[in-house]
Amino acid sequence: MNPTTDASTSLLTDMYEYTMLDAALQDGTADRRCVFEVYTRHLPDGRRYGVTAGAGRLMEAIGAFRPSEDDLRFLADRHIVSARTLRWLEGYRFSGSISGYREGEPFFPDSPVLQVEGTFAECTLLETLVLSVLNYDSAVASAASRMVSAAGGRPCMDMGARRTNEWAAVSAARSAVIGGFQGTSNLQAAKLYDLPAIGTAAHCFTLLHDSERDAFVSQIQAFGKGTTLLTDTYSVEEAVRTAVEVAGPDLGGVRLDSGDLASLAQQVRTQLDTLGATKATITVTNDLDEYAIAALSRAPVDSYGVGTQLVTGSGAPTCAMVYKLVEREGADGSMVPVAKRSAGKASVPGRKLAFRSYADGRATAEHVVAGGERALAGFHTPDGWRGLLVPYISEGQVNPEFVGHDALLRARDRRTQALAELPIAAMSLMKGEPVLPTLTQVIA
Amino acid sequence: MNPTTDASTSLLTDMYEYTMLDAALQDGTADRRCVFEVYTRHLPDGRRYGVTAGAGRLMEAIGAFRPSEDDLRFLADRHIVSARTLRWLEGYRFSGSISGYREGEPFFPDSPVLQVEGTFAECTLLETLVLSVLNYDSAVASAASRMVSAAGGRPCMDMGARRTNEWAAVSAARSAVIGGFQGTSNLQAAKLYDLPAIGTAAHCFTLLHDSERDAFVSQIQAFGKGTTLLTDTYSVEEAVRTAVEVAGPDLGGVRLDSGDLASLAQQVRTQLDTLGATKATITVTNDLDEYAIAALSRAPVDSYGVGTQLVTGSGAPTCAMVYKLVEREGADGSMVPVAKRSAGKASVPGRKLAFRSYADGRATAEHVVAGGERALAGFHTPDGWRGLLVPYISEGQVNPEFVGHDALLRARDRRTQALAELPIAAMSLMKGEPVLPTLTQVIA
């Protein structure tokens, strides 16, 4: 079962969303048409770009936003909303429209990664759910993307489940794939998102047996010589020798999970080759991040298993995305651009369009065009600009192009392609400014 | 619905747990009795102590670890385990014993926060689930505890749901309470764990209306004068004046979410008092962490709403806890202490006892006593030592003392009391060594 689709998601909110709904239903503003936008004011310290993720998963979670009887009873018992609002909630189903950046698309400060349009009532309820999904998933995809770049062509595998909340781990595996990872150790994610599942063995398996040799023999009997043996429980050198003795030269591979991985990998590679196991691969794990992966680029490593730093966003566990009302219907029925003016957190009023401009196949800038409905409708897209907003939900109908397994693979491709078109500095792990400037223009 | 109890948790694992089970069932070691222990090798950089959290929630998740038909079909279709193992899994139910630190109990490097005992087969399957829950929940509780200390007696409220995975947010709210928080904005957590739900209004509510005054009037009509109004959408000074005009001197409170909160709170307090709203409270929010809270200690603030830094562990989003086999049955039926010798990650063999020693009412050290079963059975607890391990599950039976709502409140009390007994440096936000040394002794 998938809690984001099979469970009601309607209480995955902050209380104020329900109380604002309640007040707005009473004062008559609940039906005002609104446009909310999701964006971040800045990338994490020194990051050059972010990678959008979560929207496909979010569409399923929005579909599951149907207050259950139990949810309604809770809202009533706690006196969070009035009886009138409870009746309104019984029929709740998001019937508005959502557009946004494709999953896998790079984003920058002020990129309108999601736009949610509908009545105030139906849109305000989604604030926290939208942000939870996009903030976490994009944080993981953004970190994953840097790791994959640092790994060159070598595969990166998600092994992070144990270092984050058990359900967060499931979405982390999905986001890792969007960021370019090849598989996950997490079975729930493998099942839910039809991802390759990977794994070797833990130290306990060796310790369980009376000898390391017994453990290796057992694993090979169960899974064949192509399996990957964990070789750092005791002496690595001895373990590698035993592994080849037991499996022969067709040994699939070994995993190293401790020590100075660069020198150890070199030593193990030489030993494997000397013993004839020239095709045995070396997988390394042990608190890897993008910097450690980069440092191993010249070591004879075949694949990276990444845990903690992947699922915690490698120092940036959230994207600081916000959900802001940018336009709403006025008393006369026309749409009015709005913005708060809070110190340091002012927003740009009006619905946005978003484009990326290119020159000679390289992206040159992120363009955010703001304005009233009429002004935007008349906006003529300049040559060489690519539109970044795609329709996820149109009047309540989910666009199947952007959900499900194939969409996930397309998202990974999207990241690969879009990244190749960014300025080359996007591949740098050095801290710096975003590789594209975000140019915001307001048109009348 | 609660995905940690109503959903099968049996695929919230890494694949290798199932493949190790499969190999062990084939080679005959699966039934060997084992003791696994959970501990961390170090606290996050400069932290003085950690706060245990998650075990109560974990017991429910372990109860839900019953592979569904759908889960079994997945394991079969992917050829992850053999037919024999599938049959074994059909009847899976953890029948071993688990003891560990109480929720709310401080922990230190090498503290055995959880011990899991049973056959290899039944224990190895739980590795990832155990670690996911304890690592994330304890990270949040540890951060929360520092914030609560920094806040003096002022209440701290969880408002972090939007900055972490949507289901992680639910457990974060629970962990925040263990760390001393008073309530949460997250409705799913409020419902599931019977916590006080709190909330004010968002900027969009003000922007939705034709004027700030309209928004305030609406909120007060819906929720009474005791409500808390958000006063930084436009001009704070004007908003506070409007708030008191609309609500009168009985205005419940205002929230400030931007700007220099210390000077702003002072200015708003003076204005409220001048306008006669002397009892109106001031809530501040805006990326608070323990340092920002400490810096506001002399500002006239009544409560803190904490988001990002709470749910991301304030720079330490995981506790780096590991799940290690420390003792297992040998071929002759006797228990054998075991340990890996991996570089930098060596473990201490043998099951542990854990105590805290005191002098004059203050804790002086964390004591970890390791040894074989017989040695530990004969260990005589020195005077002034307090045992830290309590029974969560005994031969498959969950101890009701440590699960559910009352246990959660006891956990919060436990943290308060235990913290008061730690050396005074525990309250310091300065980086330093753990306030208690962990003294490990191995007895024969």
From TrEMBL, chains A, B:
Similarity remark: Belongs to the NAPRTase family.
PANTHER family: NICOTINATE PHOSPHORIBOSYLTRANSFERASE (PTHR11098), NICOTINATE PHOSPHORIBOSYLTRANSFERASE PNCB1 (PTHR11098:SF8)
EC number(s) stated in the UniProt entry for this protein: 6.3.4.21
Organism lineage string: Bacteria, Bacillati, Actinomycetota, Actinomycetes, Bifidobacteriales
Domain Nicotinate/nicotinamide phosphoribosyltransferase per the UniProt entry, residue ranges: 156-325
The protein's name in its UniProt record: Nicotinate phosphoribosyltransferase
Species name: Bifidobacterium xylocopae
SUPFAM superfamilies named among the record's database cross-references: Nicotinate/Quinolinate PRTase C-terminal domain-like (SSF51690), Nicotinate/Quinolinate PRTase N-terminal domain-like (SSF54675)
Record PTM: Transiently phosphorylated on a His residue during the reaction cycle. Phosphorylation strongly increases the affinity for substrates and increases the rate of nicotinate D-ribonucleotide production. Dephosphorylation regenerates the low-affinity form of the enzyme, leading to product release.
Xref: InterPro entries: Aldolase_TIM, N/Namide_PRibTrfase, NAPRTase_N, Nic_PRibTrfase-Fam, Nic_PRibTrfase_pncB, Nicotinate_pribotase-like_C
Positions of the Nicotinate phosphoribosyltransferase N-terminal domain: 11-135
Keywords, comma-separated and alphabetical: Glycosyltransferase, Ligase, Phosphoprotein, Pyridine nucleotide biosynthesis, Transferase
